[in-house]
């Protein structure tokens, strides 16, 4: 049985990247190949290690300015982090306050407008906004940087904590593997015969939640909205027919792709890692294209049904994302890779360096 302590490591704080590199793509790339060998590269070298007919699958979610500060009618300070927008003028949000606001309470946000608390859904508060939530966030909100980035979001973060292909608003955290790609890199990949496709997974604040259960079987996975469009399913079919690999750009793209291979209702019980699915890989035409929530929890023992490789950043100790990459490459190879990255002073987390992980089966 897997335990949390198996996915721990000690990271010197100075290796946590606080700012992005000077330009997109000016990062290092640690390549963990299919034989579990490590190669120190620069991110632009990725083009040379991909193959014609490989398919890169990007997450086109767009980070919204989801963070707002304000106060209650009594004067107490509140901080709101919008998690979901189920209706134009209604949001589900995390609310931090000295005392949780109750239904009917009004919150004054950004000294600009009032929202009304109408109820709760688990840890999230239901808030009614006076106008379109996205419009008010865009005018008054702030980019919700991860908790390990210590400065307040500024104009540079608004530009750089967003992929160049972001188009579907709804994320409260960036799909950070995509931050390395610029237009020149996209053109070089196309010239090399590497195809591209897109999924959408709106990254939630739960991506930063620690796993609190020592036994992974007791961890309840957070839910995120995802969609794999028909065009991407068709691109997967073309790549496979041509002998190419399906390569997820980021763990969020990986979770969206893999979720599409599981039947509706597969994640109704989100406790513990998702068990492996027996039988052959599903044909591309069998993948689900219906938008839905996913609580897929990929950990060692999981059998990958769609993706063959992964481009990703380095992940937090004891996180579900570290478990995901360990499922793809193996626990020991990932331990060696992270030890190597620390020894070689790679930059970690959202604004840090990247990895290219090839599955031993790829």
Question: Can you put this structure into words, describing what you see?
Answer:
This protein is globular. The protein is an alpha/beta fold and 362 residues long. It contains eight helices and 17 strands. The model has no long low-confidence stretch (mean pLDDT 96). Strand 9 and strand 10 form a beta hairpin. It has two domains: 261 residues, QueA-like, CATH 3.40.1780; 75 residues, Thrombin, subunit H, CATH 2.40.10.
SSE arrangement:
Layout: E1 28-32, E2 38-42, H1 46-49, E3 55-59, E4 61-63, E5 67-72, E6 77-87, E7 90-97, E8 106-109, E9 113-121, E10 124-128, H2 133-140, H3 155-160, E11 168-171, H4 183-191, E12 195-201, E13 224-227, H5 230-241, E14 246-249, H6 251-259, E15 292-294, E16 309-313, H7 320-329, H8 331-343, E17 354-358
Parallel strand pairs: 1-17, 3-12, 3-14, 4-11, 14-16
Antiparallel strand pairs: 1-2, 5-6, 5-8, 6-7, 7-10, 8-9, 9-10, 12-13, 13-15, 16-17
List keywords for this structure.
362 residues; alpha/beta; QueA-like; Thrombin, subunit H; 2 domains; nine-stranded mixed β-sheet; 8 helices; 17 strands
Compact overview of the structure:
The chain has 362 residues and is α/β, with parallel strands linked by helices.
Q: Which superfamily, in CATH terms, is the homologous superfamily of the largest domain?
A: QueA-like
Dominant shape = globular
Largest sheet: 9 strands, mixed
- Element order: H for helix, E for strand: EEHEEEEEEEEHHEHEEHEHEEHHE
- CATH architecture of the largest domain, by name, is 3-Layer(aba) Sandwich
Structural class: alpha/beta
| Arithmetic mean pLDDT | 96
If you consult CATH, what is the topology of the largest domain?
Answer: QueA-like
Q: Which range does the strand content fall in?
A: 25-35%
Report the helical percentage.
10-25%
What oligomeric state is this?
single chain
| Main β-sheet, spatial strand arrangement | 2-1-17-16-14-3-12-13-15
Q: Low-confidence segments, ≥5 residues, pLDDT <50?
A: none
Count of runs of 4 or more consecutive helical residues: 8
